[in-house]
Amino acid sequence: MIYAIQNQIQDQLDRISNSLRAFSLKLTGNSNDAEDLYQDTALRIITNADKYNPGTNFKAWAVTIMRNIFINNYRKKVRRNMIIDQTPNNYYLNSGDRVVENDGETSVAFKELMSLVNDLPEDFRRPFLMAYAGYKYDEIAEELDSPLGTIKSRIFFARKKLQKAYKNIMMERRA
Hints:
By secondary structure, the chain is mostly helical. It is 74% helix and 3% strand. The chain has two domains: 2-80, RNA polymerase sigma factor, region 2, helix turn helix motif (Rna Polymerase Sigma Factor, Chain: A, Orthogonal Bundle), CATH 1.10.1740; 104-169, Winged helix-like DNA-binding domain superfamily/Winged helix DNA-binding domain (Arc Repressor Mutant, subunit A), CATH 1.10.10.10. It is built from seven helices and two strands; from the N terminus they run H-H-H-E-E-H-H-H-H. The chain has a two-stranded antiparallel ribbon with strand order 1-2. The mean pLDDT is 82.
């Protein structure tokens, strides 16, 4: 039974391989990386053949797998470009040749923004601060024991409320 499913998966994969290769090239912009992404995707599809629901859109399933692999690889690459400062505070530093200027207005703006964040209702503030701290939406939903859609909308509306409040502060200053 498993071999029959794997053969069907292999046949479907063969039929859409050109489309997947083109999509991988579009994602990566590099033919070598595109080929690696395609092969990783093909391997994942074949090893997870038992998770495919026959009768559903195979191409959509395969493209989703490819996109997820690409995103995960991108995130790993970004993490690899981070270095950890070994000072006692363990600050994270982005590698690169950026110059950071000290701008007093920035710290004032940050304090004002944090004041606005603190004025948000608790059910908006907590998910927003967790997202700001780098938590993923699903981690926030699990931590707060709320549905994922609720967390996404609360963060979205928290951002909108903050934008509006900050815009009002800036307009008051100009007046």
